[in-house]
Amino acid sequence: MASNGTPHPKELAHKPLADGMYFGESPRYHDGQLYISDMTGRTIYTIDAATGQKSVLVEVENQPNGMCFTDDGALIYSSMFDAKLYRYKDGEHALYSDMSAVMTGYCGDMAIDAAGRVYMDDTGARVLHGEPPKPGRMLLVGTDGKVSIAADSIIFPNACMISPDGRALYVGETFGCGLLRYDIDPATGALSNRQQAWAPSALTGKTDDDPRVSMIGIDGGCMDAEGGLWLSMLGLEQWVRLDPQGNVTHRIRTEGHATACSLGGEDGKTLFLVTNWVPEGENLFKAMVAKRTRCTVSTARVEIGRGAARP
């Protein structure tokens, strides 16, 4: 039993699927393939979920990051440095939204709701251009491409997940070291009732003001059919699953930064895991810019499948 009286998390193994990228982000499974942004490699790849074969889908000069799929199968992908979203389907690309008048940092993770509204992390700082981390926001992109601010004062927002019932949005704070929850207005998509849903201190015993927590925050994440959350614990080199009550039920360990994850596969029970390696002792952002990082994708089999959560 853990010190708080709950059972120890169940440890799961994972196996390699693909490599050969610089810095992977935002994996998304669709129609038998995994889509992944190689951020500093400036490329979106598809990866065959069975063989691991990697193919170039599109090159993005201003660096891709967050992605999501519309209900009609179109891929919406981000262009970080110029704050734009593009729509890709059947080999054709089109501008979906220009967020440059609103964006204060970079496009981060994103999710699309059942009405077609996109929730986008605005990191709040251009950290790859030397700016120190500072509070960011959640942006809401309507089906007409218009952009509004849905929430603010989020310390480097990362991960973006909509619950299976569509009523709640979860977002991680990478440098705030917490997980936030918002209610979603079904008519307008507006966010309200901000709550602190979970904090990594449940794993580490360290408080948020402890300097040792600076790189243990949440990076990516996804949700399963039971409302459980798989969270990528960046500097802790592991993914953990929280049940709806906030208990840590499962753990997957890696060697490197646990950056992102996504459920998929034929039965929805394959968890795709993105690990990024940074040379020992180097600053993460400087190593990314210098392309001194490397990325691998691996898979784990889980008990609870994908379900209706988004992405």
Automatic annotation (TrEMBL):
<dbReference type="InterPro" id="IPR011042">
    <property type="entry name" value="6-blade_b-propeller_TolB-like"/>
</dbReference>
<dbReference type="InterPro" id="IPR051262">
    <property type="entry name" value="SMP-30/CGR1_Lactonase"/>
</dbReference>
<dbReference type="Pfam" id="PF08450">
    <property type="entry name" value="SGL"/>
</dbReference>
<feature type="domain" description="SMP-30/Gluconolactonase/LRE-like region">
    <location>
        <begin position="23"/>
        <end position="275"/>
    </location>
</feature>
<dbReference type="InterPro" id="IPR013658">
    <property type="entry name" value="SGL"/>
</dbReference>
<protein>
    <recommendedName>
        <fullName>SMP-30/Gluconolactonase/LRE-like region domain-containing protein</fullName>
    </recommendedName>
</protein>
<dbReference type="GO" id="GO:0016787">
    <property type="term" value="F:hydrolase activity"/>
</dbReference>
<keyword id="KW-0378">Hydrolase</keyword>
